[in-house]
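Dear colleagues,

As part of the handover before I leave the project, I'm documenting each prediction I ran so the next person doesn't have to rerun anything. This entry is a single chain, and its sequence is reproduced below.
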Amino acid sequence: MSATKSNVNRRKFRVRKKLRRVSDGRPRLSVHRSSKHIYAQVIDDDGGRTVAAASSLEKDLRKSLKTGADVAAAEVVGKLIGTRAIEAGVKDVIFDRGAYVYHGRVKALADAAREAGLKF
């Protein structure tokens, strides 16, 4: 494993370890971004299941978005994950940014999810 990969994994596990301590049983809003798309899931770690999911790969979003790798796509996915989580009965979550810096697309997704009604 390369040094960069191990640093990313270390950072990801460090963030998740802190989230487990402060979560108080709340589901986790996990974000994954690639060079072409962005993905979000609301995960219930106690039950081990995904409550809601959204990504820029969905057919209706792919048609309306120019690309899945910009801030506009992140905002749309954030609104979608927020509404889907509320429909599933989840209002309070804890934000899991993974190994990503809270900036740009990750921040845009979080802000849009807050506007849709999620609290974190």
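The chain is about 45% helix and 20% strand. The chain has a mean pLDDT of 94.

All the best with the project,
I.
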